[in-house]
Design goal:
The chain contains 1 helix and no strands. The longest helix has 110 residues. It has a domain of 80 residues. By secondary structure, it is mainly alpha-helical.
Length: 125
């Protein structure tokens, strides 16, 4: 067996080897970072789509709520109108009852006057 003769490495040779090593590391880092960059872009895209979906659902939900509130407002206005009508009718009934009460008192007084006129012997109109 022959002994191999090893070549002596010069500083220039060492610089080339180190440079090649760094070049390989840079390529691997670029490849890795490129993969990470792609994953980040994919995540950003998925996140954006998710936010859009949430916004669409919220818009639809708020639209539904606004529609329901509009219906509630319409019903409240109708109740207000009906309540005002009931209050007006109550006032009208009160006035009519007051008139009836006065008529009843007047009739009672007339009856008493007739009785008194008979007792006194005076003829009424």
């Amino acid at each position: 067996m022959k002994k191999e003769i090893k070549k002596k490495i010069t500083i220039e040779d060492l610089a080339v080897i180190v440079n090649k090593g760094f070049s390989d590391v840079y390529k691997k880092m670029d490849t890795g970072f490129s993969g990470v960059r792609k994953e980040i872009e994919d995540i950003a895209l998925i996140t954006g789509k998710s936010f859009n979906y949430v916004h669409e659902k919220m818009d639809k939900g708020f639209g539904d709520i606004n529609s329901r509130l509009d219906n509630v407002e319409i019903k409240v206005r109708q109740v207000d109108i009906r309540l005002a009508t009931v209050e007006d009718n109550q006032l009208d009934l009160k006035l009519r009852m007051d008139v009836l009460s006065q008529n009843k008192v007047t009739d009672e007084l007339r009856g008493r006057i007739v009785v008194l006129e008979k007792k006194v012997g005076v003829k009424g109109h």
